[in-house]
């Protein structure tokens, strides 16, 4: 019985990935690429990915930008608000390395991995919408499939 | 009534159903002309470091010495895919998308030179820069002993209590003089110029 329930959950979750995004101090380049994912050209919803502004409704958190000091505690708050099972994906070079902002005297404090656990990162400055989409689609089943069985 | 029949017939078309249920566009393929991360073409790297010098992103490219020889390595978490390293490389060691084809077709390249500048108000005439410079030492091995040089071929030497730049065109941009200067009086600037039509040197 449990297996059937789990199968149903897996089937539903594979076509119902809820995404929320947070910009922790980027140049806006990656934001535009995420926006392009929502637009008809890439149309993120045809893959069963839906975007929310509220982290409490999300499964996947897309983190954009090198971390500015004001975001250090707020980013962790947002991450804690997301219900389990959850996963964070770093979009662009900034959350991975700081990219062009990682210079001497810069006020940013990358990488994002220092503050919240990152399951996947999409390098690129900016990454292509196709790369963002394939990252979400590849990481979601790894985390959400058989979640209840894995938890036990 | 006819319109309802029309709609029902339309929605029951296998083609329509297939499109409605399946993914409509297939954008997950990257076109062949897209600029990706630079990859190696297999040609030999001469360790001129032009790619590292022109790279605007810190830590994106490093030219490393391996057993087989020098080889540039790209770090995707830092690389911004601007393609400048591909264009700057005189040996076509790197490639990315259609950049090399376009540069060959248009006959464009980057010409680079180095500009040395000594701030006399900061310089305390110690001569560390002249002695530490590897090109200087190669040209005039006597230089290390005296600090000054009798040779006119060196890049720079101390003359009359002042550092004089004689041959800035011989500078390789290693910045050894900058790191050895106790007062930060000497600066090495790399000047890069886009050129077209066979004017490029390196």
TrEMBL record, chain A:
Its cofactor is [4Fe-4S] cluster. InterPro entries: Complex_I_20kDa-like, NADH_UbQ_OxRdtase-like_20kDa. Pfam families: Oxidored_q6 (PF01058). Keywords: 4Fe-4S, Iron, Iron-sulfur, Metal-binding. It comes from Methanoculleus caldifontis. It comes from the Archaea. The keyword Metal-binding applies. The keyword Zinc does not apply. Belongs to the complex I 20 kDa subunit family. The lineage of its organism: Archaea, Methanobacteriati, Methanobacteriota, Stenosarchaea group, Methanomicrobia. This is NADH:ubiquinone oxidoreductase-like 20kDa subunit domain-containing protein. Residues 27-138 form the NADH:ubiquinone oxidoreductase-like 20kDa subunit domain. PANTHER family: FORMATE HYDROGENLYASE SUBUNIT 7-RELATED (PTHR42989:SF1), HYDROGENASE-4 COMPONENT I (PTHR42989).
